[in-house]
Write a structure and sequence with these properties.
about 575 residues; about 0% strand; mainly alpha; 4 strands; disordered N terminus
Length: about 575
Amino acid sequence: PVPVGAMASGQMGSADAEVDDEVQVAAEDSSDELGHGASKLPWYHSLPYFVAGDIDAFTGVFSNNLATMLAGAQMLTSVLPRDVIFDKIIPGVGISMLFGCLWYTFQALLKAANTGRTDLCCIPFGINTPGLFAFNSGIIFAVYFAEGRTPEASVLAWKVGVASNFVQGLVEILLAPLGPQISKAVPMVALLGSLSSVGLAWLFANTLQAEAAWPMVTLAPFFLLLAAMYSGVKVPKVPSTLGPVLLGAALAWALGKAKKEDVDQAMDSIGWHPPVPHFEIFDHLSVVVGYLGIAIPVSLTVAIGTIQVRQMAENAGDNYDLRWTMLGDGLSTVIASLFGSPWGMTVFIGHGAFKAMGAKVGYSLACGLAFAAVCFSGLAALFLAIFPAEVLNPIILFVGLAVCGEALEVTPARHWPAWIIAIVPGFFNWTLEAAAGFAAAICQAGAVANGTFVVGAACAVDPHSAKAWTLSPKLQAMKSLGEGYLLTSILWASMVIYIIDRKFLLVAVWASIAALFASCGLVHSDTVFLPWHGPDDHGLHWEFVGGYLLTAGLFVHVDRCQRAGWLPGGVEARGEEGSDTEEASAE
């Protein structure tokens, strides 16, 4: 979960470090909150509201979240009406951003009051960037195309996306008391791998495809941003992302890519757009069930990401309560959905960098207020007109790279094969949309037969329908691998991790879980169902169930062979990391 947020600082922290269990976390936090050394000032004056370091931190957090929001809004303009985007979604983001920033500001103030500490920095907060793209592409786009690309389909797609976001928030809230246990049950590499699949396929590859349409505008800013982030090439006292964005905007206007007409249209949106509750999103909960395969994995990755961020804050000296931090993420996401936003909210990495700047709570408070002002006033549309999405996309490209780079940094070398396997399902999912979009464009514009362009040629089937993928076994396999890709990434990566570590019984356990998920459509199917009420089509999910069960049975047998002494023991028995590669190869 990373809206850029100072990722280049390399402050990801160690995913291999064990997160404290729930009892230990509670003990640490309670020891700080017993009042020992408590501040004599009222809690709301326990930290200064503004220091010099808050300026730099505010610039980083605000600009990165704004870029994420505008890129997500631009992505939806092809399927949703402007009034839905700028009158419903954007105000929903504003109110949830304000709530979340206030939540973590109060968290820092209360901890400072209870401990007497004045060096605390509140945790940074914002939009869950990978989740935004997963929901846009995997839910809103999918519903829109499945329902016939009509105005009614647009409204339904928005409602399903928002309702799915509500489910995501509830899952995060329910997971809050179980955070430490989750971090131990699911291999961290598997969760980071699933996040990387979004980063590489959707954030990087999909965005790069859009950027390639404006190469004279986008290439130079993109490589300038990489130079700023990875080599420190930037103007002193100026945020790293600002220079590339301004360069891209100047090129877009100079080359006629940005248009005055768009600004004039955006000016019409300037006005009071207050957040309004939208309870009509619950009218189509039966449709939402079909997209739990996206909402639940995103919730899990957010939960684990929150655990990591809290751990990184503790590494920087600020040991905030884990359960309250996870609860803040879940409540913010629920509020976003109730007010019309399909995008989840989360804390994100960069705490150590912001604390090193000297920031405390002012940057978070200012970010929440500024975001609310932008979202409630209609200025978001004006920002998007002045800075087209292609101008802001280099930031998203960097996010995609950074997600993968940070994951690799904390992944042991022996587990790299698991990480590589985890990113593959995301590409299948992206390929589904790319292939369907290509076929739809041909059907709409015409087709070529024997070298002759045929205008208005009809397609045999709707490219976005499930039937289109049954035309050949390879197409059917592609669709099966792309559906529920986040869960597939977690399942496969977990199995490979335990194969590498020779914990074969756990391989069987994860294979059995994969079979269970496949039997109800959470993976390898575009609909969710009860196992005894599966769809009547000729999908491959039942064959996947059988394949996973065979795998589980096979590794139960392998585990018995290991226990009998016929195979070497697990990773603990043969040494850590990659030092025993030659020995393992010889065996």
